[in-house]
Amino acid sequence: MIVVLKHGVEAAKREQLIDWLKGQGLTIHISEGEYQTVLGLVGDTTRVDMDLIASLGIVDSVKRVTEPFKCCNRKFHPDDTVIDVNGVKIGGNFVMIAGPCSVESEEQIVAVAKAVKASGANILRGGAFKPRTSPYDFQGLKATGLELLKIARQETGLPIVTEIMGVEHLPLFEDVDIIQVGARNMQNFDLLRELGKLRKPILLKRGLASTLKELLMSAEYIMAGGNEQVILCERGIRTFDDYTRNTLDLAAVPMLKELTHLPIIVDPSHATGIARLVEPMALAATACGADGLIIEVHNDPMHALCDGAQSLRPEVYDDLAQKVRSIREVIAK
Predict the structure, then answer these.
(1) Is this model's pTM higher than 0.90 or not?
(2) Residue-by-residue DSSP string for 130-157
(3) Counting CB atoms within 10 angstroms of each CB, which of 71, 89, 157, 297 has the fewest?
C-alpha cells in the first residue's frame, strides 16, 4: 500500500501517522520528493482501513500495490536511488566498471586497474572467487585475490567490486566496497538474507533464465532485510541462440526503469562472450538508458586464466570508453 501525503504537511502530524501505521505491525519506507512525500507500507495491509487513512487531512491519496515486490518498487520510491560508493555515485549518473574476469597476480591487477582508470573507469572489478561450470577450471585465488584487489585499490583509489560465492565467505568481504552476487547465486535466498543485514552496496546480477520479476524479488530479499543499496545488472539470459554466450536483453533496461527505482547497469562481456561484440552492445546499452557498464578488461587476453575470449585489451577499452562518452552526449541533448 502507498500513502501519498499532501505538500507542506507538518512534521509532527506526519510522524504521528507513521507511528500509528507502525503500530499496525507495518514497516514504513519514506520517500521524500520536492512536492510530495510517499509512505510505502510493507506487511499485512489487509488490516488497514484505506478509507480511514484517505479521510485524514494530511493524506492526498492511498493506493494498493499489486506487484509482489514492494521495497524496490518505483511506486514506493518515485525518484531514482543514488548509491554513493566512496564518492562514486551509481544511479542518476553513468558509471564505468572495468577489470579482469579473475585476479591472477599483483602485477596483472594493478596494471589493468591503472589502465582502466586512465580511460575513465570509476570502479575496478575482478574475480577472486570464481564459479566455474567445470570443476577443473581455474577457481580463482580466493582470499589472496581479495588482498590483491585491495592493493590495486590502494594504488589507484578505485573502489572494488568482486563476487561472493556463499555465506561462509562474508567475513572476508568486510573491506570490499561492492559485493557482487553472480547469476548463479541470484536465488540463493540464504545469502540474500545475510546481505540484507549489511549496510554495503550489493551488485545483483540477473540469473541465466530468470524473469525480471524474479530479479526484482531477489532484490526484495536484500532490501527487506534493511539494506537498500542494491544495484541491478542485466548480463544476458540463456535462449535457443548458440552464436553468443547469452542473449543480451536490452529491453530489460527501460522496462526495469519503469518498475524500480534501483540503478541498472549492463554487462556486455558475459552477455556475448565474444570480445568483438562487447563494443556494439555497450554502446547500445548506453543509448537505451543504462546507469553504467561493467566490462572485462585484461592486459593479455590470450593467456587469461578465465574468459579471455570476451576480455578487451586496455587500448580497445580506451577507444570504447571514448565512444560511450560520445553516445552519452547525444542522448543528453
Answers:
(1) yes
(2) ---SSTTS----THHHHHHHHHHHHHH-
(3) 157
- Residue 190: all three cell numbers together: 540464504
C-alpha cell at 210: 530468470
Supply the DSSP symbol for 313.
P
DSSP for 224-279 reads HTT---EEEEE--B--S--SSSSB--TTHHHHHHHHB-S-EEE-HHHHH--HHHHH
Phi-psi category of 47—alpha, beta or left, where left has phi over 0 and alpha has psi -120 to 50?
Answer: alpha
Other Cβ atoms closer than 10 A to 38: 21
Cα separation, 150 vs 47, whole angstroms: 50
Residue where the block lists cell 541533448:
333
pLDDT tens digit sequence for 218-266 = 999 999 999 999 999 999 999 999 999 999 999 999 999 999 999 999 9
Torsion of Cα atoms, 84 then 90 then 92 then 93, to 10°: 110
Phi, psi of 313 (to 5 degrees): -75, 155
Per residue in 149-180, pLDDT (tens digit) is: 999 999 999 999 999 999 999 999 999 999 99
